[in-house]
Q: What sequence folds into this?
């Protein structure tokens, strides 16, 4: 009896410790921190685009607690199966990850812990899913670049649903829960003269209708929404064939849909938002490629981007993601675009923390905690 | 008198290298090399009004193959296939002929009518010059020549060279050059040849040639051919984890070609005119990936006309003047009805014109050394929908150059070794680039009987193509000319083991260093720009062997090993093998002939390549080998000679790709009928 009650007490004690640890973990989710304590399954899943005419998109998994990389994780976990051609985005629904594979017309559904393939959502042949967002367990959406619109789908069943036409070559996409914001890039100069090129379509999710069409600028490619859903930030690339063309960032009010501010820069860049802080990779008034930071909640009447750090000249940025838990910036470096790329991890203060070699042309990182 | 003069001229011509040994275009050359060539020769009986003695001897028919190249200084031939060897291969693609030459790599974009380019010694296809009857075929628009548009039936012989002739332009010859000779010759009787061939996947071809001797010295050749194939061959494919057999669709090819050639050989001069007309319409589907075939409904139409005239005249016993002129008109129409990046169907057209003249004076001085003075000029333009970047849809180029070459008398330095010293200096100027000076020096000698050792050094250059300069979203008008330094050491040796058995072997080491290499550099993930950032070093060894046994069995084998490295000091690709450049190549053929029967095989093997410039293991493209077999039986019905041919390509049904995601055909059976009247 003694030994039994001792065992029960020990178990209860252990359970209590576990609960306290779990509560501690939950509490740390409320704000970004540099607390790198992670669960055994915590990982960063890197979507490697591959090259455009090949079946060589891949997923690399960075195992955060072991600090190791499974270079070709998806293929290894699925007996050599190929992910497809041109992987572009990743979104999570619990432990399930949805990866858009643009030129294969699919959204691949996997178990984010094991990498096992669960389902393949097949889009119509003319639709090229680029960016993907999940609105609920029953509704997801993907911008379809060559399809010129947005395709909704059921993430649970894998059934494709309604299609909404937006404009030429939609790329970036984000949502505040009520509206879906879609960036109609127009593919740079290729379709710049078409109607609605360089605009943002705002889709009412309930009606599946375009509620607003906002003027942006030529080749608007990225959309990010602030964590409080107050602002939407757009990044436009201007036109590739004009070397002096300015790129820039536009801030919209998510509620009024009005443009609030605009910043210009040079060179190809990437944008992401953490809380009320905007990060940008690009060139503003410097010949160097920099990582910039813009803090919106300062008292300054017109906040400006500040250099956070200068990136190595060998870096070819191909995307930027933010680990919402730590606030760390994961910069995707495509190297020479025909070799394995890297992911550079920067702290919110701009310190280079880690570098991982991943697959060909990494573009997006998703985080599983 | 005439015979003596003729032989002297022939020796002179051979010494100059001005006459290709395999071309039966020169009376004098024929006379000198008749023991080497298969000809219906009438040279013994030819005479002129200058002869003091006129006589006519019986026709002498000689069977044999082209011998080892003796004039290493002027004609730095690496390897060759003569007319008989070309015919004995029974291949349907000109690129398959070239695969039998060492150092040749064929980039094939799949299908029976897909784009095929050829590169030498690990250099790019744009860095490997291709000529037909001496005229450069590389398109000024992209620097490439698509071999799928040149039917093998029109090719009489092929050879590769590591340097151009002394004094000639080394433009675009960074890796060397491929020289093709079209069907032509001087014939002594009217002859009609026809051939029909049927194969799987609705592969049908018909070709004919009419050989007309107008006079004793003048002949004409009229050839025509048609080729049609649906190209819907099966290939295995893993589609989202499921193994399937997929049929290549939308891969139709229709090709028509005609060639008119006139050759005239007089005592003191010869000339040759050729007009080639080609028309090719084909569907060109892109890469096969899971869930998608890119450019699935794309079509490409090519039309061109090539007119060439060559003239040579013996000014004196020690002086020969040769000249040529050509005109090349071509059009290309690419269309794709599917919605691509542009969101609308694609409909692009390019029109190109290319014209040039070449002249060369060769003189043997009092010390029996040879001097060559060459001058040439070429003009080219392209009008195209996508040449938008600062060119206004139109681009043109003029290039002119002069060159002086020298080759010493073999007996003047060290007689016992047949030592020859040679040197050349070439100057070229083009409208949009800085002038080019390209030297070449070398030594040739015979270390032992029937052997030649040649050490050569030279430089070459390549002007940026119009696409590299002006193509939309890719062109860069600030590009510099690519330059290369080439060093080679070659040993040729031949040995006759018995009256019926001979062997010919060749080994060559090469070193090529290219600077200002133009490569595509990303300006953004989807926009790439041509930029001079590369430096490439190519080192390799090429070996070839030919064996003839009792005039029944002819064997060829070749093997190349090459390290073609990115010579930049930093970056993920530094020191790595260039993508899509095999480290090893091999090939071989065997033909056995016995009376009416002949059987043969053709094989080729390509080592592994990398897709990625960092040579990542996951980007390896597997090595592959193919084997083709054929059997031919001929018989005669009165004056009609008939031959039945059965062949099987890729008999092992190897499933492979040369370019990733462009599957190649598997096993294909064919039947053919040849007629000769």
A:
């Amino acid at each position: 009896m003694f030994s039994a009650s001792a065992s029960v007490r020990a178990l209860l004690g252990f359970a209590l410790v576990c609960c306290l640890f779990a509560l501690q973990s939950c509490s740390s989710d409320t704000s970004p921190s540099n607390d790198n304590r992670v669960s055994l399954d915590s990982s960063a899943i890197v979507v490697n685009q591959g090259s455009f005419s090949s079946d060589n998109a891949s997923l690399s998994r960075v195992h955060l607690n072991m600090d190791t990389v499974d270079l070709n994780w998806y293929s290894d976990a699925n007996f050599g199966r190929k992910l497809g051609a041109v992987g572009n985005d990743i979104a999570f629904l619990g432990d399930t990850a949805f990866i858009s594979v643009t030129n294969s017309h699919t959204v691949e559904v996997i178990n984010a812990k094991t990498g096992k393939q669960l389902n393949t959502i097949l889009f119509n042949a003319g639709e090229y899913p680029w960016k993907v967002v999940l609105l609920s367990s029953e509704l997801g959406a993907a911008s379809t670049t060559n399809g010129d619109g947005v395709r909704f789908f059921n993430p649970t069943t894998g059934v494709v649903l309604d299609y909404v036409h937006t404009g030429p070559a939609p790329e970036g996409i984000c949502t505040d829960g009520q509206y879906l914001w879609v960036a109609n890039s127009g593919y740079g100069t290729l379709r710049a003269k078409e109607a609605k090129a360089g605009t943002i379509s705002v889709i009412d999710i309930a009606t599946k209708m375009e509620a607003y069409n906002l003027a942006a600028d030529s080749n608007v490619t990225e959309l990010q929404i602030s964590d409080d859903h107050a602002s939407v930030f757009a990044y436009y690339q201007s036109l590739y064939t004009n070397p002096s063309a300015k790129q820039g960032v536009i801030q919209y009010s998510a509620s009024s849909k009005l443009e609030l501010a605009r910043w210009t820069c040079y060179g190809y860049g990437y944008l992401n938002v953490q809380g009320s802080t905007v990060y940008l990779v690009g060139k503003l008034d410097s010949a160097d490629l920099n990582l910039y930071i813009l803090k919106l909640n300062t008292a300054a009447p017109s906040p400006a981007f500040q250099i956070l750090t200068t990136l190595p000249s060998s870096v070819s940025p191909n995307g930027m993601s933010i680990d919402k838990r730590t606030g760390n910036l994961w910069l995707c470096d495509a190297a020479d675009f025909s070799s394995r790329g890297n992911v550079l991890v920067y702290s919110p203060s701009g310190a280079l923390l880690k570098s991982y070699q991943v697959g060909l042309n990494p573009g997006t990182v998703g985080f599983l905690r | 008198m005439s015979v003596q003069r003729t032989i002297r001229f022939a020796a002179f011509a051979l010494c100059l290298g001005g006459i290709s040994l395999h071309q039966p275009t020169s009376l004098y050359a024929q006379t000198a090399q008749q023991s080497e060539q298969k000809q219906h020769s009438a040279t013994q009986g030819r005479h002129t009004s200058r002869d003091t003695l006129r006589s006519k001897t019986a026709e002498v028919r000689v069977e044999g193959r082209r011998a080892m190249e003796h004039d290493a200084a002027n004609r730095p031939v690496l390897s060759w296939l003569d007319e008989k060897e070309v015919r004995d291969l029974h291949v349907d693609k000109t690129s398959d002929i070239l695969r039998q030459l060492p150092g040749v790599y064929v980039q094939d974009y799949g299908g029976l009518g897909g784009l095929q380019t050829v590169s030498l010694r690990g250099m790019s296809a744009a860095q490997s010059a291709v000529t037909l009857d001496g005229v450069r075929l590389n398109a000024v628009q992209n620097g490439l020549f698509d071999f799928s548009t040149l039917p093998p039936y029109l090719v009489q012989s092929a050879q590769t060279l590591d340097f151009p002739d002394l004094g000639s332009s080394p433009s675009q010859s960074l890796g060397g050059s491929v020289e093709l000779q079209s069907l032509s010759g001087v014939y002594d009787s009217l002859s009609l040849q026809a051939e029909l061939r049927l194969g799987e996947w609705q592969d049908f071809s018909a070709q004919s040639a009419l050989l007309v001797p107008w006079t004793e010295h003048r002949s004409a050749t009229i050839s025509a051919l048609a080729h049609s194939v649906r190209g819907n061959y099966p290939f295995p494919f893993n589609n989202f984890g499921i193994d399937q057999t997929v049929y290549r669709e939308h891969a139709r090819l229709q090709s028509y070609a005609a060639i008119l050639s006139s050759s005239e050989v007089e005592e003191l001069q010869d000339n040759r005119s050729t007009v080639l007309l080609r028309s090719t319409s084909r569907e060109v589907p892109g890469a096969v990936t899971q869930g998608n075939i890119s450019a699935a409904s794309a079509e490409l139409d090519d039309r061109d006309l090539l007119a060439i005239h060559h003239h040579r005249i013996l000014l004196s016993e020690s002086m020969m003047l040769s000249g040529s002129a050509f005109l090349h008109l071509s059009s290309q129409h690419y269309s794709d009805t599917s919605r691509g990046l542009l969101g609308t169907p694609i409909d692009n057209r390019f029109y190109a014109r290319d014209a040039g003249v070449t002249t060369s004076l060769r003189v043997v001085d009092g010390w029996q050394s040879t001097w060559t003075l060459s001058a040439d000029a070429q003009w080219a333009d392209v009008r195209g929908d996508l040449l938008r970047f600062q060119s206004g849809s139109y681009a043109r180029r003029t290039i002119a150059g002069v060159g002086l070459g020298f080759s010493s008398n073999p007996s003047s330095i060290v007689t016992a070794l047949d030592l020859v010293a040679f040197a050349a200096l070439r100057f070229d100027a083009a409208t949009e680039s800085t002038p080019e000076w390209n030297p070449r020096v070398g030594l040739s000698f015979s270390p032992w009987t029937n052997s030649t050792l040649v050490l050569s050094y030279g430089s070459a250059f390549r002007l940026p193509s119009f696409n590299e300069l002006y193509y939309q979203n890719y062109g860069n008008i600030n590009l510099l000319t690519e330059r290369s330094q080439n060093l080679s050491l070659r040993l040729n040796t031949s040995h006759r083991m018995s009256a019926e058995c001979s062997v010919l072997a060749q080994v060559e080491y090469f070193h090529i260093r290219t600077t200002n290499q133009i490569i595509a550099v990303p300006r953004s993930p989807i926009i790439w720009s041509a930029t001079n950032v590369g430096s490439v070093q190519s080192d390799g060894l090429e070996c070839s062997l030919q064996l003839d046994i009792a005039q029944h069995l002819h064997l060829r084998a070749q093997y190349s090993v090459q390290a073609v490295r990115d010579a930049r000091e930093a970056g993920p690709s530094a020191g790595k093998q260039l993508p899509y450049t095999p480290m090893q190549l091999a090939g071989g053929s065997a033909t056995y002939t016995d009376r009416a029967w002949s059987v043969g095989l053709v094989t080729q093997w390509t080592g592994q390549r990398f897709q990625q410039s960092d040579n990542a293991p996951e980007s390896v493209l597997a090595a592959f080998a193919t084997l083709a077999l054929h059997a031919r039986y001929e018989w005669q019905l009165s004056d009609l000679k008939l031959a039945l041919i059965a062949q099987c390509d890729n008999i092992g049904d190897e499933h492979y790709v040369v370019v990733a995601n462009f599957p190649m055909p598997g096993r294909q059976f064919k039947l053919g009928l040849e007629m000769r009247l």
